[in-house]
Amino acid sequence: MADGRVPGERRRRRPTKTGVLLSQEAIVDCALRLVGQHGPDALSVRRLGTALGCDPSALYRYFHNTDDLLLAVADRIIGEAMAGFEPDTMDWLDGLRDMARRIHRGYREHPRVAALAAYRVTRRPHEFRAVDAGIGLLRRAGFPDAEAVRHYAAFVDTVLGHAALDAAHLALPPDRRAADDAAWAAAYADASPEEHPQLAAVRAHLPLMAGSSFDRALDLLLSALAGAACPEGRKTG
């Protein structure tokens, strides 16, 4: 198969020693849980086998390797995020906004996985449907095919980049996260006017640097797309 998954005839649904019915879905569930609890190092066949109560080699009946599993985990996140998304019921701009927020929220809900998977291409069903929907929205806006693809690439890279950045921030220990956020109102706001005149001039506003800039970046990107759309697309956006 094009997505590199293990052929169906090599997969078997077998109960493990703990009574778990082994399947791709059960393994992905376990991988999400382990990485969420213990970080990227938990994504190993040894740890998965222990958690599932099976011989680690049994996992190779379902996935070629841990990278193959990681792609399945990423596709699961996309699928959960996009569940219920109906782009045909909204105009193209609202559809892109809803899609962006869904993907961003999906990876923020799994911050430790996001650092591993947000930049990967899953080549699996949920991602196929998401890409198809996103390009469809941009074609509906009136963009020529090549432009729709280019704009979608810029759109989804912006969304995933912010998702990975925000997820990495959430994955920090709480004290480090708080220290980073507080630095804008403390260390940077106290910068010397002689050495850093621009920081000094805007010191009252520097706390705005804390937290996510995703919503602002999304607004700017969608405004640019709306401005570049054909007149008919602008009316529907």
From TrEMBL:
Name the Gene3D superfamilies on file.
Homeodomain-like (1.10.10.60), Tetracycline Repressor, domain 2 (1.10.357.10)
Q: Where are the transmembrane segments?
A: none
Specify the domain of life of the species encoding this protein: Bacteria
Which residue intervals define the domain HTH tetR-type in the entry? 21-81
Q: Sorted alphabetically, which Pfam families does this protein's record hold?
A: TetR_C_1 (PF02909), TetR_N (PF00440)
Q: Which InterPro entries match?
A: Homeodomain-like_sf (IPR009057), HTH-type_TetR-like_transc_reg (IPR050109), HTH_TetR (IPR001647), Repressor_TetR_C (IPR004111), Tet_transcr_reg_TetR-rel_C_sf (IPR036271)
Which of UniProt's keywords are assigned here? DNA-binding, Transcription, Transcription regulation
- Feature: DNA-binding region: 44-63
What name does this protein carry?
TetR/AcrR family transcriptional regulator
